[in-house]
Amino acid sequence: MRATLFRLYFQGPLKALPRAPTLLGHLLWWYRYTHGREALEELLERLQQEPPFRLSSVYPEGWLPRPKLPPVQVEETALRKALKSLSLVRLDTFQALAERGEEALLEAPEVLGGARPPEVRRLRRTRVGVDRAAGTACPGVLFTQEYLFPDPKTPHALYVLGEAPFDLGEALAFVGEMGYGGQAGVGLGRFRVEGPFPVDLPEAEAPNAYATLAPGPLEGALYYEVEPYWGRLGGAYVGAKPFKRPYLRTKEGSVYRRPTHRLLEVTPTEPPEAGARVWEALSVFPLGVRVWDS
Amino acid sequence: MKLKKVIRIRSVLLAKTGLRIGMSRDQMAIGDLDNPVVRNPLTDEPYIPGSSLKGKLRYLLEWSLGGDYILKAKDKHVYASPDPKDPVARIFGLAPENDEKSLAVARERGPTRLLVRDAYLTEDAKEALERTSARGGLYTEIKQEVFIPRLGGNANPRTTERVPAGARFKVEMTYRVLDDLDEEYFGKYLLRALELLELDGLGGHISRGYGQVYFLHPERLAEDQEGWPLRERLKVEEVVL
Q1: DSSP structure class, residue B74
Q2: Is A129 on the interface with B (CB under 8 A)?
Q3: Is B221 exposed, middle or buried (0-12, 13-18, 19+ CB in 10 A)?
Q4: Are B115 and A184 in contact (CB < 8 Å)?
């Protein structure tokens, strides 16, 4: 499938690699800041229908999520464990999986031990609050946080389908400058952007289903893994009541019969401001696969 | 509320004395140092976390303004001002209390204006520090100190890891301007906090001489800049959005 690729180079630590709905939220806050509230509302109206563009989550370039296809039965313990722990696959392995199902994994280098995705290092930091009066560590304000440190030279891929109604490169550069995700105020989530580049993504020749590169809605999912999601409000809505309404969604790699799209309303019981409605865009980013079910 | 512009501040932070920003360890091997500095897990190089730098700037500004910032912060860690124009809350951010009044103030105040990045070693500092392995650490020095009990006088040694004097870090901050007041606060409060940092210090053991820092313009000769006003030692530019 022909798509557009943006390369992201992370400049320091971050809480988690960008995922499609959260990244779209960041981009739409940029849109609101630069184009105004009315323009954003018009865009959201368009997103209610067939979306003009779809974003993938972000992966190390050359790697995609393992499609959640019917599992191959394996008795040998080491091989079974290798299959179980595999979450990302190379593009050529994805192509083979899309055509032949999980049987293709039995000869894949990721399973046989020859290929690993780029490593993301972790750092656990213990932090303290400072007592303003004494200038010492504040009793009771000791906490630990874990950060991811991707290699700044390793490109991470963001794929886009369709045409965004704004300059996506400019918007991504802004998000990269300000920082993606939590703790941007202390320097987390910064990235540099390159692109756009045309790219061909692997998929089956005569697909009868679609694996998604982004979290999706439960409706229409065929083979899937669900996750409960309790997102936080962003932009100017960050505050004492930071949570959106919780909901269930499917993880990347889940398989759908068709490229489903849904704009899910997740306005909390007490909205962040009078009349505000909060949406979560769940768009399947579809790569065709062949499902050998009955 | 609309983002008018973004100001980027770049500088090189020179550690005039040994600098120590510590971290804890999940596990320790026999013979390990019990007071390590924070390191980038990819490169093993020491760095200054944005949170440490930002926290210290906030603390110094609060102390320079005094009053409620100190007296009313005892139970809540930081003082939650009810004024949407409060400079500390505007510049450094504040999680509001969970009540309607505080939420309305937070909405009027808007998002945190200052983003402080992690500061990593400059290339020339890295080259210079590679020679420090002879002193026990990788890019650092292991400083032996002794605690002497006032009765008895027997020495109790302790070891502390720190980045040696002379190390330089690339500092970058971003300041969001949403209205005219933000423009005014930039010069009045943020630059003041940076000046205070040079007078005070960064990291641990400041009262024992650690952590004296000095900002340098990244594109000018370091030797020339001693005694320059702080504003001239920062590279301040507007980011094209």
Answers
A1: T
A2: yes
A3: exposed
A4: yes
Count of C-beta atoms within a 10 Å radius of residue A265: 12
Distance from C-alpha of A206 to C-alpha of A219, rounded to nearest angstrom: 23
Whether A216 has its CB under 8 Å from any CB of chain B: the answer is: no
B170, B12 in Cβ contact below 8 A? yes
Which of A175-189, B26-40, B74-88, B92-106 is predicted most confidently?
A: A175-189
Pairing type for strands A63-65 and A59-60 reads unpaired
Nearest CA in chain B to A129: B77
Query: For chain A, what percent of residues have pLDDT higher than 70?
Result: 99
Average pLDDT, integer, range B174-201: 95
What would the pLDDT profile of A115-128 be if each residue is shown by its tens digit?
A: 899 989 999 888 88
Q: Where does residue A199 rank: exposed (0-12), middle (13-18), buried (19+ CB within 10 A)?
A: middle
CA of A189: which chain B residue's CA is closest? B117
Buried b (16+ CB within 10 A) or exposed e, A139-156: eeeeeeeebbbbbeebbb
Q: Do A187 and B102 touch (CB under 8 A)?
A: no
A176 within 8 A of A191, measured Cβ to Cβ: yes
**Cross-chain Cβ contact A132/B59 below 8 Å:** yes
Half-sphere exposure of B150 (CA within 13 A, CB side): 0
For chain A, how far is it from start to end, CA to CA, in angstroms? Answer: 26
Given the structure tokens 């932090």, which residue do they identify?
A127
Q: Could you tell me if A236 lies within 8 Å of chain B, comparing CB atoms?
A: yes
B73 - beta bridge partners?
none
**Strand-pair category, A286-289 with A121-130:** unpaired
Confirm if A69 and A102 have CB atoms less than 8 A apart: yes
Q: Which of B42, B92, B111 sits opposite A238 (nearest CB)?
A: B111
ipTM: 0.82
Smallest CA-to-CA distance from B187 within B226, B234, B219, B227 is with B234
Give the SS3 label for residue B223.
Answer: helix
CA–CA dist B171, B8 (Å, integer): 11
Query: What's the CA angle centered on B202, arms B196 and B204, to 5 degrees?
Result: 135
Pairing assessment for the beta strands A88-90 and A121-130 based on DSSP bridges: unpaired
